[in-house]
Amino acid sequence: GEDVEQSLFLSVREGDSSVINCTYTDSSSTYLYWYKQEPGAGLQLLTYIFSNMDMKQDQRLTVLLNKKDKHLSLRIADTQTGDSAIYFCAVFTGGGNKLTFGTGTQLKVEL
Amino acid sequence: SAVISQKPSRDICQRGTSLTIQCQVDSQVTMMFWYRQQPGQSLTLIATANQGSEATYESGFVIDKFPISRPNLTFSTLTVSNMSPEDSSIYLCSVGDRVTEAFFGQGTRLTVV
Asked: Which of A41, A102, B37, B110 is the most buried (most CB within 10 A)?
């Protein structure tokens, strides 16, 4: 089955850029997602990218996909304290018809 | 995007009892899913709730422990049966008829004592 891995923790200063990384194993993955989970809350869909794209930008968020290396990243520009949360990448594999989630990255934004 | 309401938002339950979690969507959706998020862990898919037929369970999850109902296209329930402390988790409902629409409810935080 699909394995999705993320680093557990990232700390950045307010105003800097954050880059959260994700690797996956199934090369047939079609859609890849980034979710944000704030304390005590559910998951908020931030953005997604289709596997035939290399990059997608949405305001402060930039998603980069390296399909050859099966590597996905989320860059948050001008990181704010409100960006502090756990970020999950998730991968949709058509064959399994389900989402597989990564382990989550805790982003801490320091003043 | 769909608006998903889950009830209860949190509960503390005695071991050996059962809890039913409700998921209500503000529009008709074909696909509804139930996930579990154990403390400090990622999300694991429990099952796909199918309207008009039995739910499709993932490996490691069984109907006797997690019975699911899906009476219509806007509503589903998940029951956690005969609970033990190991069932303490956040349970999340998810909906999405297209792969670009994978939305989640706010979750139900369950503590079993």
From this structure: A102
